[in-house]
Every structure is written in structure tokens, then in C-alpha cells.
Design brief:
about 5% strand; 8 helices; single chain; 4-stranded mixed β-sheet; mainly alpha
Length: about 220
């Protein structure tokens, strides 16, 4: 797994070394502690965060999903709390031909499976916090920096998916700390760990814990 310090660490699977995996995962969780100490993360269900045996994805779609919008209650709608940043992000997405779809309840960045600058989408509810918007916009920027690769490139290098999720979640976790929303911060940590293990379970076909490869993969 990737800890909050950015270092790659392997954890045991339930089927082989579950106890050592739990011990290692608790060490990683300590990296998220605040002034309240480890008590902040003690209620996270450790056994649910150990990855299942690795297997290939079942379909050809790819979405960088955010699980809900934990900071919405604290920050309110993005267009009200941060109108200038909200407008700047939407203008940049429009300039880069990213389609934004509202109102279906999902929060996700969905790149074109064929790669390239066209056909990328961001899904948003009717109202969302600036933190959620930054998260999905961040996925787009990461995807763009890699050269807008095809889906198969992410499948071959799933560490690229892990890297962008880690970046965006840590950004939201920092925001939660800045605004003093302890509950949202806890939720975001849980969401990050769940999302990370979902990616491992879905995309990794080799034992997890190898060297992270962030080499630019290019477009079509």
C-alpha cells in the first residue's frame, strides 16, 4: 500500500498473512493521526481494508470515483463558497473539451477509454463542495499530464490510478483539517483506504508492493 509518506508498503492478504497485514495497515493509519492521536482512526474497520486476491477488471470502463462529498456540509456549494475558483475550474474544463454531467448523484472523472483529449467526462451532483470539484479536476489534470492515455495503459500500470487517488484524497484530507471538520476527515481517510484496496483488488494482476512506476505513458 501507499502510506501518507508516499512510500510503498506491502500488506498481507487474508489468505496468506492476514495478521501481518493488519499490523502493517495500522502503522500506515498512524500517519493520518491528528492532535488527538491514534484514537482518531481506531474505529476504522481494519479487517475490511485488507485486499482480496488480485484479479483483472471485468469491463473496459474506467472511472476515478469519489465516494460522496464529506465536506459539503462544512463548506457548502462550491459556487457560493469559492466562486472565483469554481468559475476558473469550469472554464478550464470547458476549454479542454471535458464534458460535465450534472444531477445523476455520481462524483467521478471518466476518461475516454480510447485516450486522447476528447471524450473525457466529469460527473457531478447538482450541488457539490469546492473540495469535491478540486478532487475530480485534479484527476483530469493528472490524466492530462500523462498524455491522456488509453484505458489499457492504466490497466498495465495500475500504480498510476493509485497515485492520482492518493494525491486527490490527501488534498481533501488537508482541506478537512484546515476547516476543522474532524468527521469529514475521518470519512475521507476511510474512503481513500477503501478506494485504494478496490483498485488493488480490481486492477492488480501481480503481487502488490512493487516499485511505483510513474513514467509518462503517452496518448493514442
Amino acid at each position: 500500500m501507499i502510506g501518507p509518506d508516499g512510500k510503498v508498503r506491502s500488506i498481507g492478504n487474508k489468505g496468506d498473512d492476514w495478521r501481518s497485514g493488519v499490523k502493517e495497515l495500522r502503522k500506515v493509519l498512524r500517519g493520518f493521526e491528528d492532535k488527538g492521536g491514534f484514537e482518531f482512526v481506531r474505529d476504522i474497520k481494519i479487517h475490511k481494508l485488507i485486499p482480496q486476491p488480485m484479479r483483472a477488471p471485468k469491463n473496459n470502463g474506467l472511472r476515478f470515483n469519489s465516494q460522496a462529498d464529506p465536506l459539503f456540509d462544512s463548506m457548502g456549494p462550491a459556487h457560493i463558497s469559492h466562486p472565483a475558483e469554481y468559475k476558473a475550474i469550469l472554464n478550464d474544463l470547458e476549454a479542454n473539451n471535458v464534458s460535465i454531467k450534472y444531477g445523476n448523484g455520481s462524483i467521478a472523472f471518466s476518461p475516454n477509454t480510447a485516450g486522447g483529449p476528447l471524450g473525457n467526462e466529469i460527473l457531478l451532483p447538482n450541488e457539490f463542495s469546492i473540495s469535491a470539484l478540486r478532487h475530480e479536476y485534479g484527476h483530469f489534470l493528472d490524466h492530462q499530464a500523462l498524455g491522456s492515455p488509453r484505458y489499457i495503459e492504466y490497466f498495465k500500470k495500475p500504480e498510476l490510478i493509485l497515485s492520482t487517488e492518493r494525491r486527490q484524497y490527501l488534498g481533501e484530507i488537508r482541506t478537512a483539517r484546515e476547516v476543522g471538520d474532524r468527521s469529514a476527515r475521518r470519512t475521507l481517510i476511510e474512503n481513500y483506504l477503501n478506494e485504494k484496496n478496490y483498485i488493488i483488488d480490481r486492477y492488480y494482476q501481480r503481487p502488490y508492493g512493487g516499485k511505483v512506476d510513474t513514467t509518462t505513458v503517452g496518448g493514442n
